[in-house]
Write a structure and sequence with these properties.
Layout lengths: L9 H12 L29 H34 L11 H17 L4 E5 L3 E3 L2 H8 L22 E9 L2 E3 L6 E7 L2 E10 L8 E3 L1 E10 L1 E4 L10 E3 L2 E10 L12 H13 L2 E3 L3 E5 L5 H37 L8 H34 L3
Antiparallel strand pairs: 1-13, 2-12, 3-10, 3-11, 4-9, 4-10, 5-8, 5-9, 6-7, 6-8
């Protein structure tokens, strides 16, 4: 994954004007604002500003909260992987953005000691959080009575994913931890009959690896139905459900609401939706040469999906959200902010810079691990 360049260095200069505009003498640091917190729901806070500012600072909270949590998750996965593979010497670093690098480097060292490793990874997927976007959009509307529409109405039918109480007719989405019924092309590990070439066979003679052909049985990954095949999908059904559909999500782009609203306010809502995207770890099939133990293979299968997720889909969603939040920051007018908004924008700006540093550290560390197994 190639990360886009974002001009984080411009933030301190931008917000010097906001600090100077504050009418509260002596308030020069984030101790003057107790309401802004990374990852918090700020809908109950009166920032004494307009809806555009409220949507922006909520997007900053969402973005920074998920960026920090992703760093913590990857650190925990790398640490667990390194120690389960035999590391006994690595010590924690007090700086979170350094600690993720320390433990992922330790994991890489242990992986390399196993010998040649090959992986087959189904691409990780994230769906923007429509609930977060819709909740935010309500405050951006010019006409409060206007209905912005449901996720079903604002998503391409082929990208709509649901829990299907009936028969799935398009794609049944499983994961590394969920094997779903499959009669078609399996994007992960096929467990059953493979009408084609199977990369690995199980003890009973069935396929237990990637299937270059049609998988009939279970799939740890996404199964795209072939012909007129229909199955009862244990996971999420994308693109076609013949039955009762619940818990809808949009795998693609959510179209803008029909309601008249402030464009920058809506852009902040979209940033919140990207930041709070719902993601699932990819299916990872592992082949190890060199006599690695079953315990080592189990550790790889357990922890690599989360690391691949961070290196790919989660990082992309965060970069998109971060770019939007940063661009919207540049449109703020420091002179128009007063009261609580003028004070809370300072820790919010600091959170943006910290989040970008955390994303960079997380991406570099997780990519180093995925590269070590050929990802």
């Amino acid at each position: 994954m190639k990360m886009r360049s974002i001009r984080v260095g411009a933030l301190p200069v931008l917000f010097l004007g906001i600090c100077a505009a504050s009418t509260m003498p002596g308030c020069t640091d984030d101790l003057c604002c107790s309401d802004f917190k990374a990852g918090a729901d700020l809908s109950g806070v009166d920032f004494e500003a307009d809806a555009k500012f409220d949507a922006w600072i909520q997007a900053v909270a969402d973005f920074s909260g998920v960026a920090n949590a992703t760093l913590t998750d990857v650190t925990a996965s790398c640490k667990a992987l390194a120690t389960e593979l035999g590391d006994t010497a690595t010590q924690d670093s007090p700086e979170p953005s350094e600690n993720v690098k320390v433990w992922c480097a330790a994991a890489v060292a242990q992986i390399q000691a196993l010998g040649t490793i090959e992986v087959n990874v189904q691409p990780a997927e994230c769906s923007a959080s429509f609930s977060a976007q819709a909740k935010c959009e309500g405050s951006c509307q010019v006409d409060a009575s206007c209905d912005p529409g449901t996720v079903e109405a604002r998503c391409d039918p082929g990208e709509l994913s649901v829990k299907c109480e009936g028969m799935c007719t398009a794609k049944c989405e499983g994961s590394a931890n969920l094997a779903v019924t499959c009669e078609g092309q399996c994007g992960g590990t096929c467990e059953g009959d493979c009408m084609g070439t199977c990369s690995a066979m199980g003890p009973g003679g069935d396929c237990a690896g990637s299937c270059d052909g049609t998988c009939s049985g279970k799939c740890r990954g996404s199964c795209t139905m072939e012909g007129n095949a229909m199955v009862e999908c244990e996971g999420e059904c994308t693109g076609g459900c013949d039955g009762t559909a619940t818990a809808p999500k949009c795998k693609g782009e959510i179209t803008p609401p029909s309601c008249e609203a402030d464009a920058e306010c809506n852009a902040s809502c979209e940033a919140s939706a990207e930041a709070k995207a719902e993601c699932k770890p990819p299916s990872v099939e592992i082949t190890v040469a060199g006599g690695a133990s079953a315990q080592a293979i189990g550790a790889l299968k357990l922890h690599l999906p989360n690391i691949f997720l961070a290196a790919e889909a989660r990082a992309e969603a965060l970069v998109a959200a971060g770019q939007a939040v940063f661009d919207l920051s540049l449109s703020l007018d420091p002179g128009s902010l007063g009261g609580k908004a003028a004070l809370c924008v300072l820790p919010a700006a600091d959170a943006i810079g910290t989040s970008f540093a955390n994303i960079q550290a997380t991406a570099e560390a997780s990519i180093s691990v995925t590269a070590s197994v050929g990802g």
